[in-house]
Amino acid sequence: MSDNREEIAKSISCYGLPYGTWGLACWLVASVTTFLTYARPRKRQFMPLFIVKIVMTVGPVIFTCIRCHGEWVFVLIACGKLAPWALKMLNDRITLQFFKIGKYNDDSDDEGTENKKVTKAVNVILGTCAVLTIIILCIGGWAALVKFVLIVAPPKYKDSFNVASAWISVIISSIIFIVVLLCVSMCLCACINKISECFGSDEDIAGIVVIYFLVASHVLFSHILLADLYKDWNGLASEKYSRISAIIFLVGRNLHIIDFLQYLYESYSNR
């Protein structure tokens, strides 16, 4: 792994995910759909579309990891971009039940006791796997972001930087960021919940907003740092296969809009 800014910038051809303008737009759309569809499990899952979304989201990440296997920062950044997608799994019925088992299981008198025990066990296992996946991806993404900050830092500051001071700076900045985020979330939670109510959700989503930004903020910052490093805010690699991979990822991530439209359809059809 090279620490030279110019050498790292030349490796853009291996990076098969969007960044810059396209990356920021994708992140924004995914965030909005996550907030508005939080705690609203679908009545039915169209399995072919679900599989397509997984392939189009995970496939480009695997492609990037294989091509960038010599640059561990790119590998961690690519895997870290799955953190918001993994968090989205917590909105599905199975993983949501891990946190709200009583809401979906305990009130179902028509289900057999044995079936409820099996369902609860499966929910706990899958929910735990989802949470562990989010934590691992989040830690990897933030670690890669710290390394990238050191790479992108101007040369005149690099000599005075060392690993210890860099981590201390990141920890202090993260604490300040979390405090500010909590304050902003508390101030805006009423507005956020009001918007959610317009789409038929009665859940308090202020908490998920805070968690989402803590988990997914490194993705936002990586889009900006990559664009600055490559001096290309378009956000799509010039190399043919990397560009195709980035476009596939963009389409796959934005297919979550279909979930939101399905929520709207089910909400209005039940009125």
UniProtKB/TrEMBL annotation:
Top-rank lineage group of the source organism: Eukaryota
Keywords attached to this entry: Membrane, Transmembrane, Transmembrane helix
Transmembrane intervals: 20-39, 124-146, 166-193, 205-226
Protein name (Swiss-Prot/TrEMBL): Uncharacterized protein
Taxonomic lineage from the root: Eukaryota, Fungi, Fungi incertae sedis, Mucoromycota, Glomeromycotina
